Amino acid sequence: MIICGVDDAGRGSMIGPLVISGVTINKKNIKKLRSIGVKDSKKLSSKTREILYKKIIEIVDDYYVVRIPPKTIDRNVFKHNLNHLEAKNMAKVIKKLNPEVAYVDSCDVDYKRFGKEIANLSSNPKIISRHHADSRFVVVAAASIIAKVSRDKSINRLRKNFDLGSGYPSDKKSVKFVKKLLSSKNKSYSFIRFSWKPVQKILNKNSN
Fold first, then answer.
1. Which of 19, 66, 70, 11 is nearest to 188 (CA)?
2. CA pair distance 5, 150, nearest whole angstrom
């Protein structure tokens, strides 16, 4: 049986893309992922994630990564459609990989509703949606590592020109960077998520 794991990275960031990744693997080979130490990407160092990324790609049958740019994120957040955007792109990953069953990490408070939406969008009735799926299912943990490393690559490309920190609102360096950037009156930076509340707060302060 070919199973799939799907997860995201960068959902809460003010900067850069939201990345969604999926991996497919034959169920009998799942133990190979466990044996190399695959677990929730948040519990691993960046160096360990990079090492595991290469190993995962060698073990899995296939993988697919989608990067959603800030402009698309903003358009959906302003319409209160962020969960739908994520469901739509998770469905895109599942359709591309075409597994017999897919495990997804739910961003919706109602994980069953989220699973049903993905099932409808992907035309795949066998969707298992759970909260914290990346710590419950090793195939989702593998997807979380692929997503996180892929997003880190996008952020590292930006770091070549900007000292922006991690990109998250909890990072004082990132908040300071966004404040400085937006005080320049240049609103054309395509890597900023203008719909995010911390960014809106900065914009409102600047306009007063």
1. 70
2. 16
> H/E/C letters for each residue in 104-128?
EECCCCCHHHHHHHHHHHHCCCCEE
Domain count, the chain: 2
Kindly state whether residues 9 and 106 are assigned to the same domain. yes
Whether 165 is in a domain gets the answer no
| pTM of this prediction exceeds 0.70 | yes
Domain ranges, residue 177: 172-207
Kindly report, residue by residue over 47-104, the tens digit of the pLDDT. Answer: 999 999 999 999 999 999 999 999 999 999 999 999 999 999 999 999 999 999 999 9
d(CA 131, CA 168): 21
**Structure confidence by residue, pLDDT tens digits, 104-141:** 999 999 999 999 999 999 998 899 999 999 999 999 99
Find how far residue 165's CA is from the centre of its chain: 18
Rounded CA gap, 60 and 80, in Å? Answer: 35
Residues 189 and 95 in one domain: no
- CA 82-100-124 angle, to 5 degrees, is 45
* Same domain assignment for residues 140 and 179: no
Q: Give the bridge partners for 22, in sequence order.
A: 6, 64
**H helices then E strands: how many in the chain?**
9, 5
